[in-house]
Design a protein that fits this description.
41% of the residues lie in helices and 6% in strands. The structure holds flavin-adenine dinucleotide (FAD). The site of flavin-adenine dinucleotide has 28 residues, from helix 8, helix 10, helix 13 and helix 15.
């Protein structure tokens, strides 16, 4: 009789789950998720590691995982506490023989696995399954992987066509005796002290957590609405559900396997041919992969102010400008609109993320790590490798040799929000202005500005001057 515990973490799915497949060999199986309330406390940089939007999404994902497990004859046990205390206690109490889980790339999560392993009296098997490739499939040792994305991509691309995700079609082993009595209802947001997020009609996408919703979105974007065919033209847009795949929240908590996305994309290309759009989406999945291997390789060094660069010197300020940025009150409408969308919905477009991150680092000269920490609390799709990797990359302290990427925020506003529809959506206080003034309220005369309830930008950057007029 082999009794196993399957520890779910950022892999809340049944599809293409190597640890779940390995667990099918057991005679009894206890599927477990440990919710650590420490995530709700302020992190060393201030913001919480888990905010209300992602917590809502997580609880929905756990409910969906439980429903999926039930369909296969099992259930999910959700326990609040520290994994290194909860798991050894359960193993001992239920007389289990082994623990199975998927591996992690981020230092905090890797340290947690190490602590659990250390506290256990039985083996803990870590299988790889949240990336496109396993480490043994890399064409070079991890330490020799290129640190520049284009070289990484060229090296890996061929490899990535070879493997297939594995669907879950089997019945699961029954629960160990006594486990059913431990099952409890999931915690609610209010029990976690978070309160319900407000429904926001302008939200870019009605995200709901869980594997069925993830697979439905994948099916829809690729096969039904076929939004994917417009990806190349629409991916820099700011409004609406179709400008990009919106798959990231499910990829981040593992409700969706990246290999499933890659396999479906390849299947689509086999039927309808490759296009710039399908290739571009593939490239984005490779960016995700790049940041995962980068974080695994460099570990906590990526979280330092100067990141992976001995010679770089990123700004270190942290003052009221940071708080104004967080609250969407900088006086730069495109930045403020994005920051308000983030806090109200947990979402921000890819273009928006680049603009606000550049603005914090280059225009406000603030320490990029605090921006990354704010994103960590608020993003629905927060993922350690993609978040800290993109932030470090924009701040110019990542593994590649480039310096900080500086975006001209007003130029971006003119290019990507030409009729000010996006800033009008999120900044109601500007709706009374003529459209051509909504990106530049800082140019209004004192009497015009007086009734606005919007902060006035103190200094107008020199390089904005050509874009002050919307005709520019
Ligand atoms: C400062 C900053 C912080 C970011 N933080 C995160 C984060 O915490 N979690 C996260 O998933 N993405 C993050 N991104 C990357 C990117 O913005 C999001 O993945 C993307 O906007 C999600 O929307 P989508 O699913 O519609 O993406 P699509 O454009 O449809 O792309 C498909 C998938 O490719 C991956 N992808 C796309 N762009 C990137 C990228 N630049 N880096 C890594 N993977 C990418 C994502 O998994 C995404 O779901 C960040 C980008 C920046 C500039």
């Amino acid at each position: 009789m082999r009794r196993a515990l399957l520890w779910f973490k950022q892999d809340l799915r049944l599809d293409d789950h190597p640890a779940l497949q390995a667990a099918l060999q057991a005679d009894r199986l206890l599927p477990l998720y440990v919710f650590d309330p420490a995530l709700l406390r302020p992190s060393p940089l201030g913001p919480r590691r888990l905010g209300v939007h992602r917590a809502r999404f997580l609880l929905e994902s756990l409910a969906a995982l439980d429903a999926g497990l039930r369909q296969h004859g099992s259930r999910l046990l959700v326990v609040q506490g520290h994994a290194e205390l909860v798991i050894p206690t359960l193993v001992e109490h239920m007389n289990l023989d082994e623990v199975l889980t998927l591996d992690e790339v981020a230092p905090y999560e890797r340290a947690e696995i190490r602590r659990v392993r250390h506290a256990l009296g039985v083996p803990l098997a870590e299988l790889q399954g949240n990336g496109l490739l396993r480490e043994e499939e890399l064409p070079t040792p991890l330490a020799d992987l290129p640190s520049v994305f284009n070289q990484f991509r060229a090296l890996l691309e061929e490899r990535l066509n070879v493997f297939q995700p594995r669907a879950m079609t089997y019945a699961l082993p029954p629960l160990p005796s006594g486990a059913a009595s431990l099952m409890e209802a999931l915690p609610t947001l209010s029990r976690l002290g978070l309160g319900e997020p407000l429904g926001v009609p302008a939200t870019a996408f009605p995200f709901s957590g869980g594997e069925p919703a993830a697979l439905a979105r994948l099916r829809d974007y690729l096969w039904e609405s076929q939004g994917v065919h417009q990806y190349q033209d629409s991916r820099n847009d700011l409004i609406g559900s179709e400008y990009s795949s919106k798959l990231s929240p499910w990829l981040a908590n593992g409700s969706l396997s990246p290999r499933r996305v890659a396999a479906e994309l390849h299947r689509l290309e086999a039927q309808h041919g490759r296009s710039e759009s399908t290739q571009q989406l593939w490239m984005e999945l490779l960016w995700r992969e790049f940041f995962r291997w980068t974080l695994l390789r460099y570990g906590s060094a990526l979280f330092r102010a100067d990141g992976l660069k001995a010679t770089a010197r990123a700004p270190r300020n942290l003052d009221e400008r940071y708080l104004r940025w967080c609250n969407g009150r900088t006086g730069m409408p495109l930045v403020d609109a994005n920051m308000r969308e983030l806090v109200m919905t947990g979402w921000m477009s890819s273009r928006g993320r680049q603009v606000v991150a550049s603005y914090l680092v280059n225009d406000l000269q603030q320490d990029w790590r605090y921006g990354a920490a704010w994103f960590e609390e608020h993003l629905l799709d927060y993922d350690p490798a993609s978040n800290w990797g993109n932030w470090a990359y924009l701040a110019g302290v990542a593994s590649d040799p480039r310096r900080a990427r500086a975006f001209n925020a007003l130029r971006q506003a003119r290019q990507y929000d030409p009729d000010a529809a996006y800033v009008s959506l999120w900044l109601p206080e500007l709706r009374g202005l003529p459209v051509e003034q909504r990106h530049t309220p800082f140019m209004l005369s004192e009497p015009q500005f007086a009734g606005l309830d919007y902060p006035r930008l103190e200094t107008i950057p020199e390089n904005w001057k050509p874009y002050i007029s919307s005709a520019a």
